[in-house]
Amino acid sequence: LGNYNQNPYFSPDENFFVFLGRDEKNVFDIFLLELSSLKISRITQNQGANRSPLFSPSGRHVVFSSQRLGDKKSHLYLSNLSGNYQVKITSGNASYDSIAISPLIAK
Asked: Above 90 in pLDDT, residue 73?
């Protein structure tokens, strides 16, 4: 996929991994690889510059950083694995470029 892929991150059950890929428009999007079938699906598309995908401890969601509000600030987003439900989970004037998820978060 593309000519530049990075940041692979395995799901807690090791059935999937998410990664950052540069698409045909030279924009970074988040992709999901299902390891049993090798099927690749796109979680983000045409929604700004996306970075740093991580799975939630439950493996049901992906958290990532994205610049999609027309400014240079990155906010954190939570998405289901199909990408059809995404919500911004940060606010304010800070830019969120690095993500870490505590293992203490309830699954």
From this structure: no
DSSP state of 45: -
- Local confidence band at 71 (pLDDT 50, 70, 90 cut-offs): confident
- Quote the pTM value: 0.86
- What is the DSSP annotation of 49-95? EEEEEEE-TTSSEEEEEEE-SSSS--EEEEEETTSS-EEE---SS--
Distance CA 50, CA 66 (A): 4
Burial label for 74, CB within 10 Å (0-12, 13-18, 19+), is: buried
Side chain identity at 94, as an amino acid letter?
A: A
Q: What is the DSSP letter of 26?
A: S
**Identity at 47, one-letter amino acid code:** Q
